[in-house]
Amino acid sequence: MSAIESVLQEHRVFNPPEALVAKAAISGMDAYLKLTAEAERDYEGFWSRLAREQLAWHTPFTKGLDESNAPFYKWFEDGTLNVSYNCLDRNVEAGLGERTAIVFEADDGTVTRVTYQDLLARVCKLANGLRSLGVKKGDRVVIYMPMSIEGIVAMQACARIGATHSVVFGGFSSKSLHERVVDAGAVVVLTADEQVRGGKVLPLKSIVDEALALEGTEAVRHVVVYRRTGGNVAYQAGRDIDLATLVASQSTTCEPEWVGAEHPLFILYTSGSTGKPKGVQHSTGGYLLWAALTMRWSFDIKPTDVFWCTADIGWVTGHTYIAYGPTAVGATQVVFEGVPTYPNAGRFWDMIQKHKVTIFYTAPTAIRSLIKASDADPKVAPKNYDLSSLRILGTVGEPINPEAWVWYHTEVGGGRCPVIDTFWQTETGGHVITPLPGVTPLVPGSCTLPLPGIAAAIVDEAGGDVANGQGGILVIKRPWPSMIRTIWNDPERFKKSYFPEELGGRLYLAGDGAVRDAERGYFTIMGRIDDVLNVAGHRMGTMEIESALVANPIVAEAAVVGRPDDTTGEAICAFVVLKQTRPSGEDATRIANELRAWVAREIGPIAKPKDIRFGENLPKTRSGKIMRRLLRSLAKGEAITQDVSTLENPAILEQLGEAK
Ligand code: WTA
Question: What positions are modified (N6-acetyllysine) (predicted)?
């Protein structure tokens, strides 16, 4: 049975615990329906009311939504505000200065606490430091840092002075970093000497040096280095400066730069259908509204909560639910440097117990790998830890299979914590389809219902609505405040990718297939409908990996597809034709490993193909098009049922069936 069939046949329903409903921000289905009706009645007024209630505006906005240049929508445009003011000063002014903002746990278990007052001071110092380097409103700053207090401070400091940040995940290679630095036109790169994960020390600064040695990076004037390990790294005189030196003499106050609501807060690169990553551009006002609102709606955050999102700041989840959401609502959060399996696979449970975490937000891949680990070694099973502090669990990034959902609910949540399966994307800025803890009866594997005001729907290839129970294309029919504003440097690609003419040009195309069940209208996500893979919750373009492979001088041709994987959801499978004769035996294993290492250097270790198969050719139609469907069947190890009469050389199917 496929994962989708198993979700659609899922009849277990978990009602929200009554005690939670009573105190929830949105309490009960009626309250949800009331909000949905309000949005229906007066869409612009609904979001404007919330934007006024949730955020502190320097200059109030007079207009909610501007659709005059659709699909380049604008929200709250004539209002001005500052994100860092909203996340820090506002909390301090409200008397929360002594509240712990961040409980940071390092890889080796060392814990550091930072109050809102401290965090504000540190952000101001770095903001002043960046200004002293000449960074101005609208300049781009690339952040290539490990999970750290400093990483969050760096993002907030950029926001404070109106610089647009672009965080690059610390696992990306120098080439990937270079591509992003050039596309963003960064003037400063913030990094660390090294990062520490799972007991290993990994380089960062030397990768920045490699990236900046490549062409097109002349705009980068400075590299600011946070000394995480104190390891020996090269410094380029005049360009490189220690973060500690930069901030040493700076003041702990810094006047925020008041920016328009549409000012780009950040650019975050993500994979699309073509080779080049897309710089997803987000706004200031609409984005921050979402970060704050969804902390309250989806996670029901309260002053007594300890929130922990296990994502990395290099991904959008680490932006909205680490750097901005928790701070915007004055919450206490845990930030973790390391990995779930070090020093053993009980690390998450140990940290929940130690820090009395109440809301825990992680990815299905992590859950699946921890299920396996606790099956293999019962000592690291959640039941050995006191997890009674938990009240809400969340997941994000990929579909969660009902088995993993039920384990999470039972073994981690003790059967009392709702599992909030949040569907969203880099482009949506925050949750769009998700259960609400005090509202939604849960069905394992379904992300249930759209947030109030989110016009999610399922359509066919011509943009027409499809009936519940039938699968189709997931779209959102109306703009919402935290949506992507454009693709940096490429507005045409923005229009084509997200508002395609085939669907009428006004529907936001998520890129996922989905189905709603007939009974409740609940949404279940069926996975990407484009050439994007989702491996362990990381988005990877097949074309990106193919271009990396063919850039290797020994490779003639390559095609990449995904196949289902028990732990990572999907796994990368590459079909490769070499310029030399097709290798076999040990030769093939050796070359496959060389190609994996090559892809790790070209893109990053997360893009390494799990399977590599060599053929003398790829299956193509007469017109020369690669038959990807056939490759997907081969990757899964399925029998070939498609018509293969057009294949030039059917014998290659046998060759390509052999994994290396
Ligand atoms: C997938 C991550 C099923 C989906 C926040 C989407 C999900 C892509 C879920 C975006 C979920 C995310 N259930 N699938 N709850 N959440 N996805 O941009 O395919 O890294 O399009 O954003 O992840 O990945 P991204």
Answer: 625
